Amino acid sequence: MNNFGSLPFEILSLILKQVDQQDIYTCAFVNQHCHRAAIPLLWRTLSVPDAETADIITDLFESSSSSSPTLLGHHVRHLDFRFFAVTDRLLLRWMPHLPQVTTLTIFSGGAITDTSFQHLPRHCPRLQYLCLRYSLITQLSFRALGQHCLQLRVLHLHECSGVDNTTLSKDALQRCPLENIALGANDPLHLSNVTTMIGLTSYDLLTNLSLTYVSTPVVKQLLLMTTTTNNDCTTSVWPHLTYLTVSSCADLGSDDTLSWFLQRHPTLRYVSLVRVDLTDLTLDAIAASLHHVTRVNISRNQGITHHGIRRMVHQCRALTSVSLYGCAQTEVDFPEVEPECIEPAIFHRQEPHRYIHKLDQEAINTIRTSRS
């Protein structure tokens, strides 16, 4: 189209939203009109690969603030620091330029403290998603999030040593409509405070919960506290919970606590219980209670049997996939599976039979129609 560059700005912007990043970049060099339409889209998602690139972007932010009516940082909506260590100094320089940011991911936050982070919510009040790993921030920063980030719905914290018994309380994040919370550590001792976990029961909008390497006694107590009884009527404190992930929580499946919880949360659609010492008792609870579950991940649990898995598949009619890595289930146990569901022979050269790592939709359908 010869007159592409002369299309009305609104139409040109709509077209560019449908093409890939490289085409948008090419369009930016057509003429000034196209450049003006392309720049907001090119800066919308910013993934920073290293400190050197971060310094260059810092200079661009600061120069645009003083010389251009259109501030580059105001176009950024999604900011991703996955590949290098972010510092207080960098955050302090960037925050004033990013008032429209909605998602922030920081994987190496070991050099981030309250010195910078307590000011971030004030500069970035539209934040909806925060993923933070290895940070030293404390209650001071969490309270700031609760005061300014009134759209914060997703909070993922991993190995953040400043998480204490008041972090998740309504006093700290009181005004955040949290729907998705993930807490993780590399050692269960780092998340062994019962009071910290109890704060989770305050979020009645919760739809997604993920717990990794949380102390088993703490997880059990949390699960037992998620229902209330009034006039013989049992109600869940998380009535909208649809996604549950619990990983690396030894002996969680050794008694009926997990089964008790599953029976009281029939709204679950996705369940991931990895390396928690499951038995067929839990699989039977899933089969009996979770009639709408579509995906189940029970990897790294060698206490389950193919009989329990088959019962679950037969009774959970909405089920489309079951992940079984490290469950010692062989192709003899499930002759219905196709080769793509079987682990490569290189992983078990000395074994008489190959292990399967999943049941896909085709295998599940075959199991349901078989008589076994």
Can you walk me through this structure?
The protein is an alpha/beta fold. It has three domains: 42 residues; 135 residues, Leucine-rich repeat, LRR (right-handed beta-alpha superhelix); 155 residues, Leucine-rich repeat, LRR (right-handed beta-alpha superhelix) (Alpha-Beta Horseshoe), CATH 3.80.10. Helix content is 32%, strand content 15%. It has a twelve-stranded mixed β-sheet. Strands 8-9 form a two-stranded antiparallel sheet. The protein is globular. It comes from Absidia repens. InterPro entries: F-box-like_dom_sf (IPR036047), F-box_dom (IPR001810), LRR_dom_sf (IPR032675). This is F-box domain-containing protein.
Q: What is the structure about, briefly put?
A:
It holds the Pfam family F-box-like. With 372 residues, this protein is of the alpha/beta class.
